[in-house]
């Protein structure tokens, strides 16, 4: 179970990084349209 948990944690970290990048791009486009 520990191995599965570690994989899940890594996936979540990657998803968080992708989400943060998406937020940055989203904010950039919002700022440009103002």
Category from helices, strands and their pairing: mainly alpha
Biggest β-sheet: count, sense, barrel? none
Order of helices and strands: H
Mean pLDDT, nearest integer? 85
What attributes characterize this protein structure?
34 residues; mainly alpha; 0% strand
Provide a descriptive summary of the structure in words.
The protein is mainly α and about 35 residues long. The protein is about 95% helix and about 0% strand. It is built from one helix and no strands. It has one helix spanning about 1-34.
SSE blueprint:
Blueprint lengths: L1 H32 L1
Give a brief outline of the structure.
This protein is mainly α and 34 residues long. It contains one helix and no strands. It has one helix at 2-33.
